[in-house]
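Obj.: predict assembly geometry.
Materials: sequence records (below).
Method: joint structure prediction, all chains together.
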Amino acid sequence: MKHIALGILGAAALGFMASAASAGTLDTVKQKGFIQCGVSTGLAGFSAPDDKGDWKGIDADFCRAVAAAVFGDASKVKFTPLSAKERFTALQSGEIDILSRNTTWTSNRDSALGLDFVGITYYDGQGFMINAKKLPGVNSALQLSGAAVCVQSGTTTELNLADYFKKNKMEYNPVVFEKLEEVNAAYDAGRCDAYTTDQSGLYGIRLTLSSPADHVVLPEIISKEPLGPAVRQGDDQWAHIARWTYFALLNAEEAGITQANVDEMKTSTDPNIQRLLGTEPDGKYGADLGLSNDFVVNIVKAVGNYGEMFERNVGSGSPLKIARGINALWTKGGLQYGPPIR
Amino acid sequence: MASQEILREEPSRGSFINDPRIRSLFFQTLVVILLFSSIWWIVHNVIENLQRLHIASGFGFLWSRAGFDISDTPIAYTSDSTYFRALVVGLLNTIIVAVAGIVLATVVGFTIGIGRLSQNWLIRKICTVYVEIFRNIPPLLVIFFWYSGVLAVLPPPRESIHLPFGSFLNQRGFYLPRTVWGDGSWLIGVAFLLAIAMAWFVAHRAHQRQRATGQQFPVFWTSVALIVGLPVLAFLLSGMPLTFDFPKQSTFNLTGGFWIKPEFLSLLLALSFYTAAFIAEIVRAGIRGVSRGQTEAAAALGLRSGPILRLVVIPQAMRIVIPPLTSQYLNLTKNSSLAIAIGYPDLTATAGTVLNQTGQAVEGVFIMMIAYLVLSLVTSFVMNIVNARMALVER
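Observations (raw structure tokens):
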């Protein structure tokens, strides 16, 4: 029901919003003193509240990185949990300032929805999970003809699923829910034979099931799911801040700047590191973005570099144990490449 | 100048400011201007803000490929169909669950309502408990009760519960044999329609005869015999052209047969049982509302208790019952949008997906509002006709 309320709210907001151009997001954010960040309702590794109620995950940390860049204080973030259906309306209507919620970058979302994607914080692909104990002998998604498949509505996943079964001339019975928890509960209860979402998500969801060991993720990856944060279209300054926060995380990893050594690095004489950390004399790369010159220092101090963020949330330092794979830096054979700060 | 004219015509009225006609005209014009300018302001702002935020608008998206599948499709639908067709599928699903829910709720509601007036202490108390429980629980919880509490704890497909006549019950739903009609089965349909026409004719003639001679004719049993007997006769004559498609176990689920999904079942049961509690109270109030003198007068005329209920009490009770009953039907239809919680693809769920895939929230919400408005108005219209027929004809 909430998405309807949001839709109506969005429609009403569009109706009653003063027609004069509103102030830039950066000014609004600075004025209210925090960033309103749209996250998922709980996807382990990306954005999920821990037992103390603190939001953990790559997506949550990205918002903290933006807050560190803007305020020099990563705690100045408020999180808004959103379902897949609610997320775009929430961003469009101004309820949130940034959407960092394992969202796939597509052309339609970039153009017709009034969003602007700032980068790809996680290269993902869609997969299937089944209960191997109940379905022994199924080891490929191509054997799923006739299966009931659980899926969350309003996602690219829902569309890829239809395409994949159509392409392979297989039948299936979609069991569609609006909220992640409802899909999880239905799959766990045995309402469906297979669960489909992004592979990273499947590993995270498996941990929350009643007996994780019974479930296996099938090898097929049926789509490209470049996940990244998005901002409202038409506010270039805010989009630049979000985009360069992401690039700063990548550049910091490439330059070997970590949460632990960032203060030592400030004394470095390497011009590349000096530019990155704002210690270069007369450098004003931060100021050009509308931030402080040492914004990268603030980011790395708060959440570490991209690699640290990855390992802590989804990699070896987390229960998910996902390998870097294509999410490694370009220097290590991956796809993560940050344009230079200079 | 205008005031001078008025003063000349009706000098006794005094100043035009105090003229009630002028005053009412002025205020009515003011309200109309305010109303239309605020509507214009909202529409104008929506269009301008959509453009400013670079959000696509217009209804052109309705004819693009939907790309997603829907689990319950009363009409042919694939992911290649248009968004418009997806919305129609959603609307039909809403109508199906609403109509089935209204029928079931009415049956259960009338039974419980009459039960509350029963002479039997146990029946009376059971009905009271039923009403007090279902009336005081939010409908969403009732839906979850059926979905997660009752249907989800049934066994998995491979351990389905076998029911008589080749039907199965498991956590994926209720599977029934599907009837497959062979050649010549049109004869049965024709016989059925013919039987209804004949039954109506018999009832008409019997009514005329009773008016003229006072003699009664067993209309009910004749009609039953006609409506059941003629199709059965046609069935036998055409060589029994009926086979059954039984549900069978396959790799994942049962296939074949007629499949009722748990989402539909739990929504239907929850909505009907919830609304039935209110209908029961309305029925009880209706029957209580008929004065006792009516029953006594009918008894004094020599009528037995059956005819008293059928000819005297119920027609009068219906006059009290129908208007609030309409509201309950409307509530049930609108409550069906709670389907979204359990994944039944009704209008709200489908339109929500369309809204999300296209990003056109304003148009999506507008379509939903119009659809529910039309559904409710049609329901009211039908119930108003029923009400007009039941209303006291004053001579």
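Conclusions so far: Chain B touches chain A through 55 residues (CB under 8 Å).
To do: check interface contacts against the pulldown list.
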